[in-house]
Amino acid sequence: MQSKSINIGWRRFAANSLTWLAKSMQLLSLFFQITCILVKSASFRLRFQPRVDDIFIVSYPRSGTTWLQMILYQLTTAGSMDFAHISEVVPFFERQVFSNQDFERMQSPRVFKTHLIWRQSLWATLTQRRVFHALWRFCVGNLNHTSGKYIYIIRDGKDVLNSYWNFHVSHLNYKRSFDRFFQEFMAGKVQYASWFAHVKAARVRAATHDNVLILQFEDLHADFSGSIRTIANFCGIELSPETYQRTLDRANLHFMKESEDKFDHITAFCLEKGLTRGKFINAGRIGAGAQIMNVEQQGEFDRMQAIVFGS
After folding, report:
1. Main-chain dihedrals φ then ψ at residue 251, nearest 5 degrees
2. CB neighbours of 86 closer than 8 A, spacing ≥ 6?
């Protein structure tokens, strides 16, 4: 009887030890994966050579970045739709470490999409997000190039919050309530951290650099044709009647919605995980954010906006 008890005890000990070893190996593997990503990011940061005619589309997520990708793709090329995804022709700058795209082989003018914030210290980064995001941002670098043109698109913060919430639910399997997400967003505890800090940094940059254009999402929505001319003029693009009409026809939200898979970079991932497909490009509604918030949340958002932007 005693021998049997000892045998059971050793089996439990062995099982627990193997479980601990498996978890330790998983953590070690994750550590090496993260280290590899950070090293590759730092290498990319050192190797990247900006060009004077580069065009960067800059924004906080869910502000109209993909829309601008399509607009500038139509303005700077023949506009062929023969691509699997828009990031093949207008790359996501900081995800080069995952895509392994060779930016040096791209023809000028190169157009990039980025959610990077303008120059920020490592300490500021550490205080706004988790350590891994801070180290990743430090290795990839902030948006501190001086060459090229930069178009920063700003969308109403409440609508950004609403769209980001929908994206988390449909694409990232987010299970928490909107109230919880609201608090995380307000505290900057989401990917790319604080919307308020991101927008403020862009406004400060634009005030001192004439190669930065601030574009309002609502203006793009209200005057699409006029905005196309503004963008082309800022980038020094000669706007022929054919290019102008093609951009009007293909860079509108209705056309893009019909080609959803060319813009939603994680459609395949969503299908594999059984998540919702076809909600990456929304209707671009204005004012939806205020509708989903209660009165208290709207007041909190407005107070934060007044503190950060001074209005």
Report:
1. -100, 20
2. 66, 69, 70, 73, 262, 263
Q: How distant is the alpha carbon of residue 4 from its chain centre?
A: 59
Q: Tell me: the pLDDT tens digits for 192-223?
A: 889 999 999 999 999 999 999 999 999 999 99
Among 109, 5, 103, 101, smallest CA distance to 48 is for 103
Nearest residue to 54 (alpha-carbon basis) of 74, 81, 72:
72
pLDDT digits (tens, 9 = 90+) for 9-26: 777 878 888 888 888 888
Neighbours of 17 (CB within 10 A): 10
d(CA 7, CA 5): 5
In whole angstroms, what is the distance from residue 57 CA to residue 214 CA?
10
Token pair, residue 61, equals 């997520």
Omega into 109 within 30° of 0, i.e. cis? yes
